[in-house]
Amino acid sequence: MAEISDLPNDSAVYKTLLESTRAIPWKIDWPTMSFSYIGPQIEPLLGWRQDSWVSANDWASRIHPEDRERVVNFCIAQSQAGVDHEADYRALTQDNGYVWIRDVVHVVRNDQGEVESLVGFMFDISERKKTEEKLLALQKELEALSFKDGLTGIANRRQFDTSLAREWESARHSQQPLSLLLVDVDLFKQYNDLYGHLQGDTCLTEIAQTLRLALVGPRDLVARYGGEEFVLVLPETDAAGAQRVAERCLRLIEKLALPHAQNPHGQRVTVSIGVGTLTPGPGAEPQDALRAVDQQLYRAKQEGRNRIAALV
Ligand SMILES: Nc1nc2c(ncn2[C@@H]2O[C@H](COP(=O)(O)OP(=O)(O)OP(=O)(O)O)[C@@H](O)[C@H]2O)c(=O)[nH]1
């Protein structure tokens, strides 16, 4: 039986071993920037013939254009510095597809310490990349879901809290007015009693989607505040602008015309709206503003519902 120490002279054994791995071995002669070897496994993976890998340029031109500059610059810099390295990139296939590759590179130097050649292995990491991409997409989906109200599909309370904190700071900084609207469905307990809880859910969803239509500014937000209550955040909106949005909400809900036999306002579903506009000064807190707007909502209810009450 051959000893391990016999192997170094046996290049045929090395060649067989190298060409039977899943990883693809290669060697580039550094002074001429040309391939002195690439494993035959490259052809079934990428489609390019083994003898078509002649210069380092053949390698560079078969990298996805979006990855090319980054990878080529990185590999040249590392090689010049004599540092072993690895790079992930999309290699182009002959039939215009691409395969994710991890190229692991070892820099070989001569006795003078000059770079003589690069040797490495290309690994097919497509499956790993696919899993990574799936995980990333799932993570994004989860993140989006964590800011969405499960029933109505609009922003939830958490998103509202985040938005309000951000807009509050922005308004404090710019000294632009910020408006808040609290919208509460009228006599909703009776609605549930009359039509059932499931129908109540549908009603809330329709109202949420309708309120979205009342928004105008790019940063305007409507969120479910809780139960049958919604909140609108209107950055850079003064009292007159907020009043217009509140009136649009009332009109849109009126147009929606959902039946509510026990609502004296036309036997239709209506809402009451509390409105507040302020420019945050030093020491002012979002919770104080919300409390003030809630008082207006209470006033709108007291004064007969299906109306707007605004902080003056
Ligand atoms: N179907 C359904 N009902 C809900 C949901 N969240 C809260 N509610 C109901 O909304 C009703 C709110 O009732 P109240 O706070 O008494 O107010 P209201 O009947 O709308 O009366 P006013 O606000 O005074 O006009 C309660 O009966 C809750 O059960 C929900 O997600 N789905």
Q: Briefly, what is this?
A:
With 312 residues, the chain is an alpha+beta fold. The protein contains ten helices and ten strands. It has a five-stranded antiparallel sheet with strand order 2-1-5-4-3, with helices on both faces.
What is the mean predicted local confidence, pLDDT? 94
Strand content: 15-25%
Helix count from the secondary structure assignment: 10
Bound molecules: guanosine-5'-triphosphate
How much is the radius of gyration in Å? 33 Å
CATH superfamily annotation of the largest domain: Reverse transcriptase/Diguanylate cyclase domain
User: What is the CATH T-level topology of the largest domain?
Assistant: Alpha-Beta Plaits
Please tell me the total number of domains: 2
| CATH architecture type of the largest domain | 2-Layer Sandwich
Order of helices and strands: HEEHHHEEEHHEHHEEHEHE
Structural class: alpha+beta
CATH C-level name of the largest domain: Alpha Beta
- Termini separation comes to 98 Å
The major beta sheet can be summarized as: 5 strands, antiparallel
GO molecular function: diguanylate cyclase activity
EC number: 2.7.7.65
Enzyme class: transferase
Pfam family, one: PAS_3
